[in-house]
C-alpha cells in the first residue's frame, strides 16, 4: 500500500472514531496509548532482561563481523528509540533504532511501517528467537534468510515489539560525521549531519532512473540505488546512497555546498549515507 493510502486509511479510522465518540453522552477520552492497536501489548518490560545495543554488538561481534548470523536464545529485551523509518522511500523494509549505547537496523519484511513506528517513538523489542548478524558488517536484527541475516516477517515483528507510551525526539543523537567517521564499528547506524557538503554529479537528479551505460546506478537495474561522492572523497570509502524509488529521487544536485542529515550505514569498509526524507536536505551551508 502506498504511503498516501496509509495516511488516508488512518485518517478515515480517526474520523470514524470521532464520529463514534460523538454518539455517546458525557466526556470523550483520548485513546489509551498504553495499549496501542499495533504490536504486542502483552510484552512486559523486565529490567532484569534489558540489554543495550552495545551489549548485542559485543556478544554477537563474530556473526556481525563475518556477515553471518546467530539466533538469540536468551530471554532478553531491548528498549530503544526509532530514529528512521520508511516514510521517505529511501529506507526500505527497515527501521533504525538507537539507545544510549549505539544504533542498529531492524529488518522487517513489510512496507508502510512509518505510521506505527514514527521517528522519536520508543519501543520495546522481545529479542528471544530473533536473529542478529551483519550485512556487510552492518549490525542488523531480523531473521534468517538464505543462511544469512535477513528481514523478519511482519507477523513476527508485531509479536516481538511493544509500542511504548513515550515519544521523545530528544532521545535521538545527531552526530557530526566528521567526528565519528574514523570509528565505523561503533558509529554505524547513527543519524549524522554533514555540513558544507559538495555532492558529486552536480546538475543531475539525486537518483535518476536506470539508463544503459550510466555509471551511477549501483546494481544495474531499474530498482537500483545511485551512489554519489561526497566532498570528493573516494567512493570506495564514502557515498551518498539513494534509491531510485525515494520520494526525493528527482532532487537536482546543486554545485554549491549543502547540509544534510542521514543514517550512516556501512557496507564493509564503505560508509553509505542514507537520507531519510527530503526534509533532511537543507539548502545552502
From the structure above, extract its key features.
285 residues; alpha+beta; OB fold (Dihydrolipoamide Acetyltransferase, E2P); 2 domains; seven-stranded mixed sheet; 6 helices; globular
Quick one: CATH class of the largest domain? Mainly Beta
Shape by Cα distribution: globular
Which secondary-structure class do the elements indicate? alpha+beta
Topology as H/E string? HEHHEEEEEEEEEHEEHHEEEEEE
Distance between the termini: 37 Å
Summarize the entry for a quick read.
Helices cover 16% and strands 33% of the residues.
Please characterize this protein's 3D structure:
With 285 residues, the protein is of the alpha+beta class. It folds into two domains: 38-171, OB fold (Dihydrolipoamide Acetyltransferase, E2P), CATH 2.40.50; 174-282, OB fold (Dihydrolipoamide Acetyltransferase, E2P), CATH 2.40.50. Helices cover 16% and strands 33% of the residues. It has six helices and 18 strands. The strands form two sheets. Strands 1, 2, 3, 4, 5, 6, 7, 8, 9, 10 and 11 form an eleven-stranded mixed beta sheet that branches. Strands 12, 13, 14, 15, 16, 17 and 18 form a seven-stranded mixed beta sheet that branches. Strand 8 (138-145) and strand 9 form a beta hairpin. The longest helix has 20 residues, at 3-22. It is globular, with a radius of gyration of 20 Å. Residues 4-31 and 218-222 have low confidence and may be disordered.
